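Batch manifest, entry 17 of 40.
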Amino acid sequence: MRKKSQKIISLGVLFFVTVNVYGQTKDSVNVKTVDEVKITVGSRNKSRVATDTPVPVDVINIGSQSVLSPQTDLNQILNYAAPSFTSNSTTVADGTDHIDPAQLRGLGPDQVLVLLNGKRRHTSSLVNINGSPGRGSVGTDLNAIPAFAIERLEVLRDGASAQYGSDAIAGVINVIMKRSTNTFTSAIMAGGFNSKGSNDHSGGWDGGKYQLDLNYGTSIGKNGFINFTGSLMKREDTRRANANTSNIFNAYNAIEQRALDNGVNISSLFSNINNTPNSNQILDYIKQYSQNVSYFTTPQLAQIQNANTISAMQDALKFDVTNNELAYRGLTRNDFNMRVGQSKLTSGQLFVNSEFEITSGIRGYAFGGYSYRHGNAAGFYRSPNQNRTSTSIYPNGFLPEIASDVIDVSFSAGFKGKLGKINYDISNTFGKNSFDYTIENTANASMKYPSKTSFDAGGLGFSQNTINADFDTKVDWLKGFNIAFGGEARFENFKITNGEESSWALYDINGAIQTPATPANMKPTDFLGNSRPGGSQVFPGFRPENALSKGRSSVALYTDTELDITDKWLVSTALRYENYSDFGSTFNYKLATRYKITENLNFRAAHSTGFRAPSLQQMYFNSTSTQFVGGNPFEVGTFSNDSNAAKILGIPQLKQEESKSFSAGFTAKFPVAKLSVTLDGYYIRVNNRVVLTDQFSRPSGTYADGTPLRNLQVAFDAANATAATFFANSIDTQTKGIEGVISHKAQIGNVSLNSDLAVTVSKTNRVGDIHGSDILIKAGQINSYYSEASRVYLEEAIPRFKASLNNSLEFNKFSVLLRNVFFGKVTDPNVVDVNGDGIVQAQVINGQAVEIEHPVLGGKVITDFSIGYNFSKTFKLTIGANNIFDIYPSQNYGPVTARRATGVDGGGNVVYSATPSTIDLSNSNQFVYSRNVSQFGMNGRFLFARMNLNF
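Output type: structure tokens
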């Protein structure tokens, strides 16, 4: 019955269409409609409105979001309001748990430019290197801007590098801050997830969210203003795992606990179990306290009592005792679950926007803000039976936590006026983002007892200073000629700060850092003789060798024109030259046109070239560790693009991505029906796209001199490395898509109904060959440049079909929002036997067997519903829900037994293993839903109440 009612409501909303708040949603905040708003992005003609542009520009009224919508952060507002925009929170993905990657038109997070009040916004310092959409990219942290500070968003859905510079391949998002005065507004929101999946699927409430937003503006002088916004937010975590099904305790853990119950810490008596003066004492304690383990069988106890050497005792204590030991300790398997779901977050933000008169005819302005966020996310559970677990500190194992401190600062100031007929705007914009890691509830397993449990793991920082000089004027030629021109200088810096020594070091049993000369009996082990790893568990800190500070500068000149040839025909052109201190120059152009076929029917088209400069983060990020092979130190990890390893292995210096885009569409208005329609198609080709490669490895075995595999061995040895990943301009891609919006307004008496339908269909795929170095290609490692998993992340990890279907209704003092969003299917990059035929399907790619059978998460409809009531002019109460029907993504695959690909035979056919192996994508029941991809998250139904106050 519930499914039927959902379908009925969805069909009803399809009929009435949606309220995607494209600037047309009427609400308690008085904001002009899209037809009236003079846009500031996509056109430098200050009198141009959104419906009159030669390229699609969406105007999204954020004021309505602060009243009715369940979403409060900017990423999620856009995710539900603009189908071309995609952003989702990740889980168990290190730093990416705290900064959500966001994408426009299916391109990368770093291929959309973000402006604040028309000025370039700096990017995040975090580079996304983990398994999630946008892997290898560096995006702009939109959530660093409080939504309550925003009046509207202008989303330019077209390439605009010739107008605005690097990054604007997919488009531009311009965030316009509030300018209101003499009004105090506030919003107090409380909500949480009331879902069948809450609290590891036991139900109830979790993930509580509490937010306070304040805004106040006042006049300055005659025509000036200053507007302040403050925001405080606390977000609790959600948990969406099931009971851990893995082995947790072995027999040694059981005896160790009985000894601890009597004040004896056996694991503190040794660092290397094969090199300790306490061997007899340890054996005696084990024999003594094994008698206290009631569930040991007689043969098990006899083997323990007869073990007179450490080696014999190790053999006696390897068996699993999880279920019995859980009962003894009063624990359940749920106590060993990971924290899979939404991370914890606390934030405080203060933003200011101002404009004022300096002298007659010259106006000054200043805006910016400060954002601080403290996040806490967890990694994989470290069970007591693992060598990475210091049971002397954590007898029940531990769940390590990544605590982040993200500070974002921005400030822009300038002055503008008019010299004769020329308008000018001179400004300076500074922005800085830092991301510092503290690893908590963890241990460095190689440290002597007692060890630290919290580590400063270092951090990342990025700063950007941009100087702009912009000019524009109108010439009385034909029906009007607008000319804009100007220049820009930008200075950027990226730095990595190393963590404290104990966060990254691998120690010997005396507390000295291990070297190639460290003998095996001086390396820490667990009781069973397994070597202990170094560094803080879950996230080893950045080493001094990783620390750096790198900068660059760029200068640009541009011209941007619009000519109304007739009352019906508009032609726009833009040219931009830009020079970077590290990779050289680039020149781009744009041509666009709009023709009014009738007063209510416009045709528009555009063609442009574009570019994206490789970010400093992509050029210089590095995170490596040392491993000893045959007594020699070798580096493993991600190497910077300018490293010796990159040069030796033939990885060239990163250069700019270059794009060509084409778009065409129409806009139509039907005044009698109060209906408007827009439809646009686009094609974007991106060459030399920067990707984060998979791991290249030194070949094992012995090969003749001069052979490709031997040459690669020699190269790895010269680079002092055994395994390496890099950022490289590895592929060319093409993206095709169609976007459509239908809007309708109805007014019957005192009842108003605004409805919109917005749909996007897109597809991205690689074209041409992979760009790789000869030495790696000849050695058969070309697939590591752009692996099958990387292909899925790029092409299929975000919805290629998305539709937003909503209505907003206002009646007397009531306001109602009903919104359905359909998120299309996505593909998980992991492989498993999906069709149940007993094998994981593979195909031959570049001469190698590559498994290609991936889980597909089906499309789902998410319904939001909220209702508000104006008790007075100053007080409004809203209650509602996101995902009111408690919809979850398709479930992950648990243990599946299947045959795997092992190679390619002489005939070029895939060879499969004779015996099957087990694949468990759920990781022992922890990832009930995919952690790598998700259209709309995995948290279920969110209920909220919000009070809006206006004075």
